[in-house]
């Protein structure tokens, strides 16, 4: 297989310490094919928000499996899931479903173009591989594009990169392409997400003044920093938004939601956004069970509290060990950075390798899930303390 995996970010690069494959998960722990156990903070790169084999979700999947997976007409679960997400997300008046966040974002781009009659798109942050079309923009999280293989120049010319918290840069793009921008699409920056308190209102004002739509990429922020994502947390509503990783505890589903008049762009007589598996029932059943658990058990507060316990504890270990790394950002979805401007890879790569060696699975954006208990966090910090001590000794 090219890359050795269908998901580039999952392909192991730190062998032999890193697991080559994962064969089982339970709660907040995973096991590889060698029987090694890891306390997991990768969580399938974000989708496992409640924990592996979470009972309410697995039971919902089993119940639906008895009745069928996919049909030639809509299943009632499709409407039930749409009603639930519209109840939970402030800016959602209507909703539809696809399988991945990237394709749902692509759908919103097509809808924005149809709704506005314009062609150009401003991208802020990584918006999925389908939409990694802006020269100089990220082709993967944290990986900027030097060129765009497979993207015709005519298409790349319609997509424009802007930086997080750079309202002036967005304004300049809107001026440069006056009357031509269909939408501003924004994914929050992990390390400096708090800056959204000013940036989201600025984007809303800029979009309104330019006659463009504002689209939120809530694939990471949705059902994580707040039940309704960044739009609830910061109190600024978009015209369209996409949710995916937080919806169904690992089952493949995405939702694109928004204002009723804008969502009409993919209705009868509008653009064609359609997929055979958009209404697949196992993922819908999982999504309903997952979102209901979020609503009824204050999962988001657990992610904030447990994340603070975990990542502030790790920051203390870094300081005590003299390792110039830090975890920065909102506790439910922070990222690794350096404290002194040192290249993060110089320290992060050996640290993550050492963490694997001591039984902790990490990624550049690490996540806690609802199944991480205080005892799990204490054990993980103990293991990482040993990893940092060994790394510090090796570095000297």
What is the CATH superfamily of the largest domain?
Type I PLP-dependent aspartate aminotransferase-like (Major domain)
Main sheet: strand order: 4-12-11-10-9-5-8
Overall shape: it is globular
Can you give the helix content as a percent range? 25-40%
Order of helices and strands: EEEHHEHEEEHEHEHEHEEHHHEEHEH
Q: Assembly state here?
A: single chain
**H/I helix tally:** 12
Largest sheet: 7 strands, mixed
The CATH architecture classification of the largest domain is 3-Layer(aba) Sandwich
Number of strands: 15
Strand proportion, as a percent range, falls in 15-25%
**And the CATH topology of the largest domain?**
Aspartate Aminotransferase, domain 2
Main structural class: alpha/beta
Overall number of structural domains: 2
Instruction: State the CATH class of the largest domain.
Output: Alpha Beta
The mean pLDDT is 96
Protein described:
This protein has 2 domains: 2-53 and 299-395, Aspartate Aminotransferase, domain 1; 55-297, Type I PLP-dependent aspartate aminotransferase-like (Major domain) (Aspartate Aminotransferase, domain 2, 3-Layer(aba) Sandwich), CATH 3.40.640.10. The protein has 12 helices and 15 strands. With 396 residues, it is an alpha/beta fold. The two termini are 39 Å apart. The longest helix is centred in the C-terminal third of the chain and has 23 residues, at 299-321. The protein has helices at residues 55-65, 76-88, 101-116, 153-156, 167-176, 196-210, 230-234, 260-263, 281-297, 299-321, 344-357, 374-395; strands spanning 22-26, 29-32, 37-40, 94-98, 120-124, 138-140, 143-144, 159-162, 181-186, 213-217, 240-243, 254-258, 325-328, 335-338, 360-361. 39% of the residues lie in helices and 16% in strands.
